Amino acid sequence: xxxxICRKDSDPKYKPFCSRRCADVDLGRWLKGSYAIPVTxxxxxxxxxxxxxxxxxxxxx
Length: 61
Prior knowledge:
Blueprint: H1 20-32, H2 41-46
């Protein structure tokens, strides 16, 4: 198996990575949101719950 960051052979100690450095690079990418799945505006609206068109009682106008 190769390291997904640098493509060197992976080390069993850091599997699937080759080193602590590559594992940290991957973690940094996760924390920054680099691995986020893009969503279209239409998909985002489909995921919102239908509130019947009424305003939420705790929202401030």
